[in-house]
Amino acid sequence: MELSCKVDYACIALMQLAIRHGQGQPISVNEIAHSQNIPIRYLDQVMGMLRRAGIIHSQRGAKGGYHLAQEPWQIKIIDVVIALNGNDYRESPNNYQTTPEKAVILDMREMARKGAADVLSNHTLEDLVRKCEEKKHSDVMFYI
Length: 144
Description:
Layout: H1 5-19, H2 29-36, H3 40-52, E1 56-59, E2 65-68, H4 77-85, H5 100-121, H6 125-138
Antiparallel strand pairs: 1-2
């Protein structure tokens, strides 16, 4: 199971929104794109998908942009994946099993899919932000 670049960009943008959540000011796509080196047009499409899924809200106008629709601890990463890739992610492949070898491979793929779904279901946007902050602090080097 691979997560697409679209999911990566969405999670990065959502972490930016989570960091500033509760400050009352929405964040523009341009600001996120420039600070995270993400193509603006692509990020704009991703943000539209997240908005349609109800994960974020948009605000129009000169001081417009996006903000989270829920608290960061309420947004599960699996919901982000489903918003961008559709609900097919949770469904088992309905493949025709003609040989024991194919059946074994399909069983293994199903276990991997369920394992990935469990990990994504048990992690929230707040978890990602916390891990990012921990990484920033662990990367700081002190020299004497």
